Amino acid sequence: MTQQLLTALDRFAPRCVLVVGDLALDEYLIGRATRLSREAAIPVLEYVRDFSVPGGAGNPAHNLVALGAHAIAAGVIGADPNAERLLAKFRELRVDIGGIVADPSRPTTTKTRIMAEGMMPTFPQQVSRLDRVERRPLSEPVEQALVQRIQACAEQADAILVSDYRSGLVTPQVIEACVRTARARRILLTVDSQGDLLRFKGFDLVRANRQETEATLGRQLSSEDDFKAACAELQQALGARVVAITRAGEGMSIRAGERYAYVPTVNRSEVFDVTGAGDTVIAVLTLALACGVDALDAAQLATYAAGIVVKHIGVAVTTIEELRRVISNT
């Protein structure tokens, strides 16, 4: 199996993936806990450092670039300082920003995480988070501008990946435009949804987690037979070629055509932060399928990649070189 996966990685080639979804700036403020506040039962943190990375749909785009692909981000940002910070970060990471529309009436979604370091050299712990987000649906002019960007950018894409963070961007009109465009160009269409799975009928690949699947089907998933049946039911209801249900620390269930497989977690012990692991999974699955890799091998690769990123604090990515090294040493 190891050699089979390494051979699959060899098929990764410079592909172009259009990532459509809710864009965000993920900001991390890290301080050292020095004492308890006199004002409330909370620690006082003295500033140590800060950093920011693309969040939301920006994270699968970042993952794709790290894996050697060309990624185009399509979404909506505000006209504020955080929009400039996010665009600068995209440029630094070599993510194409040709699909981004600015809407001055909305803030740029920003998620600020406050992290506390202790006296020992351990990973910082998140103590609070402040989100600045607007969840209302897009206005009609902004929505039309985005649809036009999607259609234009898809001309050079080998796949369209929809990343729905439920911040108002993935409207029925945007979904329809993605389906119509992907079908017209005969390119792969994938989605990472955070619920409302039945909106994504006609997609080639649908990824959902256990909770989202249970909510859609109206029942709990406990046994392996439950997951197997859920994959088949979702596949039929959505008309999808591939359905992947991620099971957190238990791994992934995947159904491709008539084949079903359970892919166990590779890394169970060194888990420090699961933030963004789902973004890594959908990025690897999309890129692998766009390169013609077998869906079950793609699931194995995605599981390895997720096992790498959860070892890091914050939204993280892995490279194809790191992925190759981990698979070779397993």
Give the % helix: 25-40%
- Low-confidence segments, given as residue ranges, are 269-274
* Net shape: globular
Q: Pairing-aware structural class of the strands and helices?
A: alpha/beta
Tell how many strands the DSSP assignment holds: 13
Domains (count): 1
CATH class categorisation: Alpha Beta
Characterize the biggest β-sheet: 9 strands, mixed
Q: Classify the fold: give the CATH topology.
A: UDP-N-acetylmuramoyl-L-alanine:D-glutamate ligase
Mean pLDDT: 91
Radius of gyration: 20 Å
Number of discrete helical segments: 10
Give descriptors for this structure.
330 residues; UDP-N-acetylmuramoyl-L-alanine:D-glutamate ligase; 13 strands
Descriptive account of the structure:
- With 330 residues, the chain is α/β, with parallel strands linked by helices.
- The chain is built from 10 helices and 13 strands.
- The protein has one domain (2-25, 54-109, 133-328): UDP-N-acetylmuramoyl-L-alanine:D-glutamate ligase, CATH 3.40.1190.
- The chain has helices spanning 2-10, 58-66, 81-93, 140-153, 172-185, 210-217, 224-238, 277-290, 295-309, 320-328, and strands at 16-21, 23-36, 43-56, 70-77, 96-102, 110-117, 125-132, 159-163, 188-192, 205-209, 242-246, 252-256, 259-263.
- It has a 9-stranded mixed sheet, sandwiched between helices. A 4-stranded mixed sheet has the order 3-2-6-7.
- Helix 5 links the parallel strand 8 (159-163) and strand 9 (188-192).
- Helix 1 (2-10) packs antiparallel against helix 10, helix 2 packs across helix 8 (277-290) and helix 8 (277-290) runs antiparallel to helix 9 (295-309).
- The longest helix is centred in the C-terminal third of the chain and has 15 residues, at 224-238.
- It starts with a helix and ends with a helix.
